[in-house]
């Protein structure tokens, strides 16, 4: 681990990144260029003290997940991310793994989307980053680890909670779409990849998945329109626009509603409600 080079690399990349580049408000007049240390720590979901010690050459060797979070917070490219890992004495992640690093180009667009739900997902259905409104609409995906990071895994193995976000009439169609998208990813990544591990686990534990897998349906396209069910606001009709990386391993999804519609009013209300839940009135 090269502590001096790591500290210099972090400091220089922090100083050239503006708050607006990371979806943060500019705020009051700044004494220093770029982001503050506490802002990087916030974006990376770590303590300010931990990040500060890294920049001061005093911190312990960062783990691979910690480095991934820092790379995302600093909006590093793949090459810069790999260099960061090497400075910290860690092996860079496999670039064929779509869940290891969010594409910088997608993040630049994502950071400018604050007034409508937006999220970036991998081709395995893993939510890599989501804004405040996407959390309010779809739930906080950062709580999941391992195979549960994949929506398709949760869809078939935890249907009692995962399918509540969709109207009952749409669930069979969504099941087929989930399996078809996973088969496309499996064909690209191979049987020995994380896609292969995901398929094996689903085949073992979900007869419903196994039946759909045998159909050999393949599709990558996202629906242009869908209905989502919020536990407090109810059904919301949204249009879904997607922007893919060149290799289609990641996609930015933007959910919008036509102006002056009931759905638009519900999305606006979503910004007020956030992740609150309302208790039923006492009888």
UniProtKB/TrEMBL annotation:
Organism field: Labedella gwakjiensis
Q: Which residues form the HTH cro/C1-type domain?
A: 9-81
Q: What is this protein called?
A: Helix-turn-helix protein
GO terms for molecular function, please? DNA binding
């Amino acid at each position: 681990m090269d502590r001096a080079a790591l500290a210099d690399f972090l400091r220089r990349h922090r100083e050239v990144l503006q708050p607006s580049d990371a979806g943060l408000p500019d705020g009051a007049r700044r004494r220093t260029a770029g982001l503050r240390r506490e802002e990087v720590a916030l974006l990376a979901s770590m303590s300010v003290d931990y990040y500060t010690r890294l920049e001061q050459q005093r911190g312990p060797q960062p783990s691979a997940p910690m480095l991934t979070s820092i790379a995302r917070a600093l909006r590093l490219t793949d090459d810069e991310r790999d260099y960061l890992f090497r400075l910290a004495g860690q092996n860079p992640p496999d670039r064929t793994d779509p869940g290891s690093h969010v594409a910088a180009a997608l993040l630049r667009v994502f950071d400018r989307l604050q007034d409508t739900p937006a999220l970036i997902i991998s081709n395995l259905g893993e939510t890599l980053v989501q804004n405040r409104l996407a959390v309010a609409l779809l739930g906080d995906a950062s709580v999941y680890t391992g195979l549960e990071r994949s929506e398709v895994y949760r869809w078939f193995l935890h249907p009692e909670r995962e399918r509540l976000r969709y109207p009952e009439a749409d669930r069979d169609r969504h099941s087929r779409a989930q399996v078809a998208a996973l088969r496309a990813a499996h064909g690209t990544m191979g049987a020995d990849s994380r896609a292969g591990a995901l398929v094996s686990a689903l085949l073992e534990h979900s007869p419903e998945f196994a039946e759909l897998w045998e159909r050999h349906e393949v599709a990558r396209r996202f629906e242009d329109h869908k209905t989502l069910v919020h536990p407090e606001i109810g059904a919301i009709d949204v249009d879904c626009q997607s922007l893919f990386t060149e290799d289609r391993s990641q996609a930015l999804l933007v959910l919008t509603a036509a102006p002056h519609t009931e759905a638009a009013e519900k999305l606006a209300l979503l910004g007020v409600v956030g992740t609150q839940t309302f208790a039923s009135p006492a009888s």
